Amino acid sequence: MAATAAAVVTRPIAPEQASLWSDAWRRLRRNRMALISAVYLTLLVVVAIVAIFKTPYSYRAVGVALPYSGPSAANWLGADILGRDVLSRLLVGAQISLIVGVGTQVLVLAVGVPIGLIAGYYKGVADSVVSFIINVFYGIPDLLVAMILLLLLGPSLNNIIIAIVATRWMDMTRLVRGQTLALREREFIEAARASGAKPLKILFGHILPNALGPIIVQATFGVPAAILFEAFLSFLGIGVQPPTPSWGSMASDGLAAIRIAPHMVLAPSIALSLTLMAFNFLGDGLRDALDPRSRR
Amino acid sequence: MTPASVRYLKALCVGGVAILVAIACGNPTPQSSNLASNQTLTFPILADFGTLDPAVSDAETDQEIQQNMFDGLVKFDNNLNVVPDIAASMPTVSSDGKTYTFKLRTDVTFSNGDKVTSKDVLYSWNRSAAMQGAYATNLSAIEGYDKVSKNTASGAALEALLEKNDPSVTLTGLTAPDASTVMVKLANPAGWFLPAIALSGSTGEIVDVNAVKQDFDNWWTNPATAIGTGPFKMTSRVPKQSVDFAAVSNWWGSPKPTLTKVHLDVSVTDPSTAITKYEQGGYDVYGYGGYSNMPVADIKRIQATSNESSQLLLQPKVRSYWVSFNMVHDAKRTAAGPFLLANGQSAHDLRMAFALAVDKAKLVTVVCQDIVCTQATGGLIVKGLTGYLGDGQDPLAKFDAAQAKTLLKSADPDGTKTKGLTYTYDPENSLNKPTAEFLQSQWHDNLGVDVAIQPVSHSQFIKGRLKGQYVLSRDGWQADYNHPQDWYDNLWGHVVGCPDSGCSTGYDTKAYDDLLDKADTESGDQANADYKALAQMLINDVVYIPLYYSKGAFLFKPYVKGAGTNNFSDFHWNEIQILSH
How confident is the model at residue A3 (pLDDT cuts 50, 70, 90)? Predict the structure, then answer.
């Protein structure tokens, strides 16, 4: 008994303290929809990667089935207008959607975060100029910007990403600017400044890590927005060009045949909807996990 | 038998005999009693027409509508024979084949009551030649055309020149000895002259000088001045919304129109939407006015619908589709590419490789579902027309992937010549996009060449193609009349401006031009032999990749009587009746 009592005494008396990230992970795990979404998105990524090496048929092979034919054992999701396998094209379309969604957010982060940090930290002229440019970009319809850019640059996957970034960078910049404006007045930043830390160190060593939660959430919401925008551009025929399939162009192709071959529209539309929902649920979950005060 | 019975029997017999007599001699129910009280025909055109001025009309829609508003000296009947129209009879032709004398009917009037005389014919044809619309060359056989075609005056200035019969705008071969006689002297004999002027809605049609001079360029837009000799006249027009026509009362021709009104809906631009509206009772006809390119998906659906399948008519049309190469690069033709005539044998082999790499039979099965087109195996001229080479006679229609690969390897061993190629097409026709994707797939699979495909709006596409801006492009032709000259002159002849304008490929050789000039002056077997030799030149030089001959798809409500189509054009509106329904 004495030994036991001694052991109790030597235990740390401070309460168990979790890090921000483990705490967020704990909260995220409690969010069932976010977890299901994460599992779906993980599967989607795996399938998209596997599709680089193997699909049931070549996505560009015409006449593998009777054009417009519905789902069958040989073609699980049926065939399209040229008798191409819809499932194979859907899988390759997933690659396009993920590349566009993730690629766009990487670029948005690369552009939006530094500009937002600088505008928020230095305020004054830099902030005025950045705010003015943001307002100008918000004033121009994003579809118009994208269409003009694609007209000038040509409709390729890279250019679609550039066009979407050109219409989406402002959200991230504005968020980071706002976070920076708030954080720069906090005591720990004052302390860093007083201890002689250089602006670059303050921006990327102190402010950015503390703004990371909202940034991650914003980026997560940005992915489905970019995927939807790409699908819309492809639906209009100015997005990803044939023979590369995109969920948007597949839905567009299927629209003319919706009364005899609804699977041509349903398959890409359902895939698109599920993916958008998954990203949005995950984004919601991350927001709640990283910033519990925002939870209603 | 009682007297009453006898009387009853007599009465029965008399009554019975009376009924039998009535049935035997009788008068079947007059046709008019089957007619609906509302004789309005409604159908959609999926884009507004460009013009209703025969001098400058170009599109099929323009011509399909104009054939109901205007007449020429001769016309095609529904069996495609050239028959008199405003002319009282077929013209007499001089022994040298150069002078045609037309006697006009004396009872022909314009819809405003103006009487038609030979001066109207001279005015209309001189005007058409001077305005240089797309079909001005239909008059190019007439003496003096070369000079008039160089006219640069337009609008009111041209009208002034025409009014005073200025030599610069007067075809010297066109004279009017009296009010009902027109003499046409050709520069050379031309077997194609009569079919060319019989083309409806085109440069051979007669317009009213009194109406035209009120607004020389836009007279046709105003119902008050859109005057012709046809059975219908325009009564109202809201651009891109609707156009209405009414039957001309006491029209001089026959059959007299039964329809009182024709309503064209221009507000629907999507074929599937228009077909749905037809199915919902919004239209009486679909496919008229040059819009018979029905999406295959809709055709398959209608074929599977029992109460609609009988309303569907699939009519082979005189349309041929192929792929064109850009074959000339100069200051006016900006596209270069690896297929140029000037590049000799290696370019020839490349063109042949691209032609042989396409499985055209599979294209017809996959893209057309063996419904809306048939494989073009007998040359560019459609089966059934003069000049068709015969089934399987076009070697460019063959598919030989191995030979294609061999040719490509010898002509472009390192793949540099065929890198970055683009095939350009206009997506308005629902077959063009799947055809483009099919070709892209075939060239990739059978040649290993990646060709980008680029959609360009139809009007821009046509201009760009004729200016030589595309290395590889969608091409096609719908016969205007049944004569090989319509194809060989208008597509590759120097009359239309090859190599530098009005010419898809730019293809131009002296041998071709010389033989074409010769063939155009000939008639009968000699002409046909020379036109076939021209076809062989195009084949030898691999000027095109033949794809398919297309069909038109039409829908007619069961109560629409007399509506139909031949392989050239819609039947005229004055032949249509709306039955009670």
Answer: very low
